[in-house]
Design a protein that fits this description.
mainly alpha, 3 domains, 7 helices, 2 strands
Length: 181
């Protein structure tokens, strides 16, 4: 609760800042809380808290929208990528609320469920990318490498240099990049 809410101040009977609660002894003589008609003793803090909650909700909504934009990086297959972004953001949010290992244990079940959902959506997205030809499988990469070697061989006539170039390209594809000179 903020310092402002902790203060209880008496006001004059004709003050416009007077609490509007009327009890058996008449109208309350305490100062009302800002953005409310009542003092803290008569629920004025609830209006203040409701306003704070609304501001927090709006902030989180803006943060949510921003994170979706960050986590869904491509315009291709937008809806699946947005789903991945949302699920990753939910995982991040669950982890961020944990203050100690006990909290982490309490969210382990829902966190595990979210992780499985991310894996399913990522797998679906990858399959769709593959079907649409957006990912290169090893066969396509090898075909592309052969095209590059052919282009280079059209320009270079030294067979020894061509052999080194093609060996290095194939090595790079297999993850065995060498610095041969």
């Amino acid at each position: 609760m903020s310092d402002y809410l902790a203060k209880w101040e008496r006001v004059d009977a004709d003050s416009h800042d007077r609490c509007q609660y009327i009890g058996a002894q008449g109208q309350c003589c305490n100062k009302k809380v800002q953005h409310s008609e009542y003092c803290p003793a008569h629920g004025g803090h609830k209006a203040f808290q409701a306003k704070e909650q609304k501001q927090l909700r709006n902030y989180r909504l803006a943060q949510f929208r921003s994170r979706i934009g960050e986590l869904s990086s491509s315009n291709h297959i937008l809806s699946l990528r947005e789903e991945i972004g949302i699920l990753r953001m939910l995982i991040e949010s669950k982890i961020n609320i944990c203050e100690d290992p006990t909290d982490l244990l309490l969210v382990a079940g829902p966190l595990s469920d979210l992780l499985m959902k991310v894996e399913k959506v990522v797998t679906s997205c990858s399959r769709l990318d593959m079907k649409l030809g957006r990912l290169l499988d090893k066969g396509r990469v090898l075909q592309f490498a052969q095209t590059i070697v052919q282009i280079v061989s059209d320009e270079i006539e030294d067979n020894e240099i061509l052999e080194k170039i093609s060996t290095r390209i194939l090595g790079a594809i297999d993850g065995q990049i060498t610095n041969q000179e």
